[in-house]
Amino acid sequence: MAQEKDRLICVTCPMGCALEVTHEGPALVEVSGHACRRGIEYARAELADPRRMVATTVRVRGGLHPLVPVGTAAPFPKGRIMELMALLREVELEAPVRAGQVVLADALGTGVDILASRSMPAAD
Ligand code: SF4
């Protein structure tokens, strides 16, 4: 497989180092621009299994507002985010909702839970 070069921003800490990455498909060959070892691990993970935190809203029945913000408890596989969003569009919670409540456990079998980001009281 031919080697390719890409640029990545390490988001592991607020330094945001600009990484230059040489890779063969998903396999890391060389990385530069990292200020610490965690940049190498970030580049390796980003090539092999890119993940992102996901935030959106889901519907709430009987709540003070019709939607509540939710988010992934851990970074979610990037290639399956559209599938996750479609699934969350079908979710409807029952008020009240408390912050941190599991909205969807083990989303799409990834082991990542979706949690409510804030509480939503019931409408009086
Ligand atoms: S390479 Fe190290 S210092 Fe740079 S952003 Fe990543 S974790 Fe932070």
Description:
The chain is of the alpha+beta class. It folds into 2 domains: 4-49, no CATH class; 55-116, CPE0013-like fold, CATH 3.10.530. The chain is 16% helix and 36% strand. It has helices at residues 38-48, 81-89, and strands at residues 4-9, 18-24, 27-32, 51-52, 55-61, 67-72, 76-77, 92-94, 102-104, 114-116. The strands form 3 sheets. Strands 8-5-6-10-9 form a 5-stranded mixed β-sheet. Strands 1-2-3 form a 3-stranded antiparallel β-sheet, with helices on one face. A two-stranded antiparallel ribbon has the order 4-7. The longest helix is centred in the middle third of the chain and has 11 residues, at 38-48. The termini are far apart. The mean pLDDT is 96. Iron/sulfur cluster binds at residues 10, 12-13, 15-17, 34-36, 38-39, 42.
Highlighted features:
alpha+beta, 124 residues, binds iron/sulfur cluster, 2 domains
